[in-house]
Amino acid sequence: MKRDMFLGVLKSAILALFLVGAIAPASFAAQTAGQQSMAFDSEPLSIASPKGQVHKFTVELALTAPQLEFGLMYRDKMPADHGMLFDFGTPRPVMMWMKNTKLSLDMLFLDQKGVVTHIQENAVPFSEAIIGSGGPVAYVIELNGGVVRKLGLAVGDKVTSATISAKLDK
């Protein structure tokens, strides 16, 4: 009798372990998939050089704390004329990294007027190295790696968008 009861408990324990093992990976996969997408609004953005060259982009807007943290992580690709504008509210030193970011990115750091103050080209995918703003900034734009060099973007270029203009009008 004791042996039959032991075998019954053992079978139940094995079945429970099997079910937990089958359900846990599916739950983890669903959680991971949820972490790999986030909704962002977008808007047109222009970058003008002092010589008058204008380059137009469509940028997604990282405005909330979760959006600022998530950024372009987990993206497999991004159209050549797209990017992301991070709005940090008030000017402050900013630190970025490439954790969970599959794409090489160029980062343009902007003051509160939308003037490029610092550029980091070709940030390395998945790197956890800190990329500093080089001083207080209000915004960061992330573009595909190599765009800065290809278009000749530089410190001193002026960025305009509805998000930046709205704060200038205040």
What does this structure look like?
31% of the residues lie in helices and 37% in strands. The chain is an alpha+beta fold and 170 residues long. It has a 7-stranded mixed beta sheet with strand order 5-4-6-3-2-1-7. The model is unreliable at 13-34 (pLDDT under 50).
Essential attributes:
170 residues, seven-stranded mixed beta sheet, globular
Radius of gyration: 23 Å
Q: What structural category do the secondary elements indicate?
A: alpha+beta
Please provide the count of β strands.
Answer: 7
- The number of distinct helices, counting runs of at least 4 residues, comes to 4
**Order of SSEs, N→C?**
HEEHEEEEHEH
Morphology call:
globular
pLDDT averaged residue by residue: 86
Name the helicity range: 25-40%
Which spans have pLDDT < 50 for at least 5 consecutive residues? Answer: 13-34
Strand content: 35-45%
How would you characterize the largest beta sheet? 7 strands, mixed
State the strand order across the main sheet: 5-4-6-3-2-1-7
Quote the distance from N terminus to C terminus: 83 Å
Concise synopsis of the structure shown:
The protein has helices at residues 2-35, 65-70, 147-151, 162-168; strands at residues 42-48, 54-62, 82-96, 105-110, 116-123, 131-144, 158-161. It has four helices and seven strands. 31% of the residues lie in helices and 37% in strands.
